[in-house]
Write a structure and sequence with these properties.
- This protein has about 140 residues and is of the alpha+beta class.
- The protein has one helix and eleven strands; from the N terminus they run αβββββββββββ.
- The strands form two sheets. It has a six-stranded antiparallel β-sheet, with no helix packed on it. Strands 4-3-5-6-9 form a five-stranded mixed β-sheet, with no helix packed on it.
- The chain is elongated, with a radius of gyration of 23 Å.
Length: about 140
């Protein structure tokens, strides 16, 4: 009788291990699929200044001086909440969200503008380049 219980316990543990393995594999496949989907949605872009680059890794990105901004630019010429980057179907748009110094794209003051590769975005005295992501 004890042998039957022990055997049943071992089979249950093996079945549980198999279920966990299937979940891990499914999760890995979903993560890879999501990464491919995001690359097509985001067009794999980033913005960069002279010192660093910021990968655009979600569909709404707040840019500003405040600590809660997704991309924080610690410069007094940049408003606390300066601009919002959004993406839809691989098209990135920048929107001024009430900044004091405005948002400039390629030297033109804009309220909202669709971005193209190699556009220069100026927020206060900060110049950022919108470009394809450069993997290190």
């Amino acid at each position: 009788m004890d042998t039957d219980k022990l055997l049943l316990c071992a089979i249950s543990a093996a079945a549980l291990d198999l279920c966990i393995l299937v979940l891990i594999i499914a999760s890995y496949c979903e993560k890879r699929s999501d990464k491919k989907r995001w690359r097509s949605v985001s067009a794999d872009m980033e913005i960069a200044d002279a010192n660093r680059s910021f990968p655009l890794s979600c569909d709404e990105i707040l840019i500003g001086r405040h600590a809660s901004a997704d991309i924080r630019l610690a410069d007094l010429s940049v408003s606390r909440y300066h601009a919002m980057l959004t993406v839809a179907d691989g098209v990135w748009t920048i929107t001024d969200i009430g900044s004091k110094s405005g948002v400039y794209v390629n030297g033109s003051l804009v309220r909202e503008r669709r971005l193209h590769e190699n556009d220069v975005i100026t927020l206060g005295s900060k110049r950022l380049l919108f470009r394809k992501r450069r993997d290190k």
